[in-house]
Write a structure and sequence with these properties.
The complex is a heterodimer of chains A (316) and B (432). Chain A is of the alpha/beta class. Chain A has 11 helices and 9 strands. A 5-stranded parallel sheet of chain A has the order 7-6-5-8-9. In chain A, α2 links the parallel β1 and β2. Chain A is globular, with a radius of gyration of 19 Å. In chain B, α4 crosses α7, α7 packs parallel to α8 and α8 runs parallel beside α9. In chain B, 60% of the residues are buried. The chains are: A alpha/beta (316), B alpha/beta (432).
């Protein structure tokens, strides 16, 4: 684990790696609860934010995590930068690297952009979302949140519902939850599923009602409203009826089942407005946990490199 | 008059295979074929086949418009090093080769190159699929192949019209058939995609296009070839379904021919696993089953020709994300070796698919594709099919280095190339 240089995909982590990260997250959750939620763990380290795609919550979460670790950060604003003047990805990355950064947190609309970037920099690269591909810190915060409520995820059942085809969150969580021993089911019409699920550790159904009573987690994905223009579903109303977590469906969930969503929510589309506010909906808690998870990731990649177990006492 | 004797090789052409020396003159003709010939100069062909020069139906030479990536001169040099004596330049230049002035410019730029570069021309003005180019005028300039390559003609009615009109132009081409070559891709199924749709695109999160994007247009154009009687040439066939449809169309006696690009019978979509845009190409790399079908199509003659779809791009254009980088890969200097290494067919069949059959499709039989007999044009490739070498993009003549075969060990390499009697490549070195 200490050899990990980048965090690009949940596929790169094994179960031990994930558990170690979740344990470290626990320590940083404690830090975040302090009156002054700040530690000097990354003092002197510089992190560049390279966001080619709009993001508010992920970016704020990473920035807060970095501040709580006392890291310096450098904001590469794509809209006002040389990227708009035609600079290649490689030149941009080499320019940032030349300023002496230790880490690059990247979000890009193109799948694989973080993989490409690792070839052009010595800095650690953290994938903050690449196209439809991966969003590993989202998956880690989801695993952390689920574990806090349900304990061990072995044998637990999670349904991931809605626009799976275009979702990096679904791709990350299918791998992440399966690695932690959970049974993952995708629930969507064929128009919202990847063309092939060959080799994926998931079951598939087109019928949410078939699984709603058996699951421990109902994970709803954001329905991108602009997809409507491509007629992937006939109407959002019909989508809500067939695949939304309506009040009627929510009442059929097991008592301790969690309702999760990566945000931002479309109330009335993938989730009924009132359902999002129920006590077993842990959606805002996911956001809170995101900071501690990202502290753990940044610390692990940019920290002293000493064995984590020895380090934990110091950081916490 | 200076003569060159090519000694010690095995002559292979459409008439057969025999041990023979070949004597050529610098006025461009074969003077003699036989044993123990001597000339003013000697080229050693020991262990080599002496073949009619290779012919490539499909290259992108980027001039005019993108000279930073390739020029007609550098592309022709790479072609000669690959054993090609003639290549057909695709019209997706900037501006497009869609009118007499641009086609004339290409002809002028190719006047003194070390490979015989023949321009194709676009089917539609600007390759935008809306109105026909002045085909009669372009045929009179020497164009024999029309294509909107890079995109397919989407409009059914316009494609029908193009076939009917092209079928009426043989009186302007000395009886040579005019060929409409199609890049088969139904845009409605492929817009916004960057690779083959399937297991790998799903896993990588890269938007993919299904095989059916290609196959629906193959199906339509077979129907239009039947309707109009005009020959359709299918470019870079990449799917098992396409190969099967062309096989059936040929069995039904329809006027269709087809080519396969080298990368489509040796690389698959699994190559995209590291998001390296060197493996991004249109049509995309497909599955093992498709590769097997393309090989079978080449073995049984369903696919007439091997083409390179040589598509140079500068390093900076490929140093982008998979989605942002342009599609295409180099092919001219590796084509014979890749085909020779990956296809399990006799060398006679391989040379047929790389020389005389494409020469016939492009209407070049008078100048290229043999046979090698006294009085025939001296356009020859002398190739050692058994030598192994390692591919290096930086070592190529191309202005770009985007080969997908970097570092790969391959078998078979051009030793000498003769164009119009001139030894333009000697011992693997371009002479000018």
């Amino acid at each position: 684990m200490s050899a990990m240089r980048h965090l690009l995909s949940m596929a790169d982590l094994d179960r031990d790696d994930i558990e170690q990260l979740l344990n470290l997250t626990e320590s940083f959750t404690e830090v975040s609860a302090r009156q002054i939620p700040k530690v000097p763990a990354l003092r002197g380290k510089t992190i560049a934010w390279l966001f080619y795609e709009d993001s508010t919550r992920t970016r704020l979460s990473f920035e807060t995590a970095a501040k709580r670790l006392s890291a310096d950060s450098m904001n590469f604003s794509v809209s006002s930068s040389s990227v708009n003047k035609g600079e290649s990805l490689r030149d941009t990355v080499e320019t940032i690297s030349a300023m002496g950064v230790d880490g690059i947190v990247v979000r890009h609309s193109g799948a694989g952009a973080p993989h490409r970037i690792t070839q052009w920099t010595d800095a650690c690269v953290v994938n903050a979302g690449d196209g439809w591909h991966q969003h590993p810190t989202q998956s880690l915060l989801d695993l952390y949140t689920a574990t806090r409520h349900l304990g061990d995820l072995d044998g637990r059942r999670i349904a991931i519902v809605g626009d799976i085809k275009h979702s990096r969150v679904a791709r990350s969580n299918a791998i992440g939850f399966a690695k932690m021993g959970a049974e993952v089911t995708f629930v969507a019409p064929q128009t919202l599923l990847p063309p092939s699920l060959e080799g994926w550790p998931v079951k598939v159904t087109h019928d949410l009602d078939e699984v709603i009573e058996d699951i421990d987690i109902c994970y709803l994905l954001r329905m991108q409203l602009e997809r409507q223009e491509q007629s992937v579903v006939p109407t959002l109303r019909e989508f809500h009826e067939e695949y939304g977590l309506t009040a009627a469906r929510a009442s059929r969930l097991k008592d301790d089942a969690l309702i999760m969503h990566p945000g931002p929510m479309n109330r009335g589309v993938e989730i009924a407005g009132e359902v999002a506010d129920r006590p077993n909906a842990v959606i805002t808690e996911q956001v809170t946990n995101g900071i501690a998870v990202r502290m753990a990731v940044l610390y692990l990649l940019l920290g002293s490199g000493l064995d984590l177990v020895d380090e934990r006492a110091d950081v916490a | 008059m200076t003569t060159t004797a090519i000694k010690g090789g095995t002559v292979i052409d459409q008439t057969g295979t025999r041990r023979a020396d070949v004597l050529v003159t610098d006025d461009g003709t074969v003077l003699a074929v036989g044993e123990g010939l001597d000339g003013d100069r000697t080229l050693d062909a020991t262990d080599c086949v002496v073949s009619p020069g290779l012919v490539d139906l499909h290259v992108h030479l980027r001039q005019p418009g993108k000279e930073e990536a390739e020029t007609i001169e550098t592309g022709a040099r790479g072609a000669a090093l690959g054993g090609f004596t003639s290549v057909v330049a695709m019209p997706n230049t900037t501006p497009a080769m869609d009118c007499a002035s641009v086609v004339r410019e290409v002809i002028d730029l190719a006047a003194d190159t070390i490979c015989d570069v023949r321009p194709s021309a676009a089917i539609t003005v600007g390759r935008d699929g809306e109105s026909l180019t002045p085909m009669a005028e372009l045929v009179k300039l020497g164009v024999r192949i029309f294509t909107d390559d890079g995109t397919g003609v989407q409009d059914d009615r316009l494609m029908r019209t193009a076939l009917e009109y092209a079928g009426s132009l043989a009186h302007l081409s000395g009886g040579q058939p005019i060929v409409l070559a199609q890049h088969c891709e139904v845009n409605a199924l492929s817009e916004g995609t960057y690779m083959h749709e399937g297991e790998w695109s799903s896993r990588l999160g890269i938007p993919g296009q299904p095989s059916e994007s290609e196959e629906l247009m193959v199906m339509r154009d077979i129907a239009l070839a039947r309707l109009t009687g005009t020959r359709v040439h299918f470019q870079h066939m990449s799917t098992a379904g396409s190969v099967a449809m062309i096989r059936a169309a040929k069995a039904a006696g329809l006027p269709v021919t087809a080519e396969a690009a080298t990368h489509h019978f040796c690389l698959t979509d699994a190559c995209c696993a590291d998001y390296d845009p060197l493996f991004k190409v249109h049509p995309p790399l497909r599955t093992d089953a498709d590769v097997a079908a393309v090989k079978e199509g080449l073995a049984d003659g369903t696919i007439d020709a091997i083409a390179t779809d040589h598509a140079p791009h500068t390093p900076q254009d490929k140093e982008r994300t998979f989605a942002d980088a342009p599609p295409g890969m180099l092919g001219l200097e590796t084509a014979f070796a890749i085909a020779n290494t990956h296809l399990d067919i006799p060398i006679e069949s391989l040379l047929a698919a790389m020389s005389w059959r494409p020469a016939a499709i492009a209407g070049l039989q008078a100048d290229h594709g043999g046979p090698i007999v006294e009085g025939s044009p001296a356009n020859l490739a002398i190739i050692d099919p058994n030598t192994t070498w390692t591919v290096s993009g930086d070592a190529m003549a191309s202005r770009s280095n985007n080969t997908p075969y970097e570092g790969m060990a391959v078998r078979g390499r051009t030793r000498h190339t003769i164009l119009k009697g001139e030894a333009v490549v000697i011992d693997g070195e371009a002479q000018r």
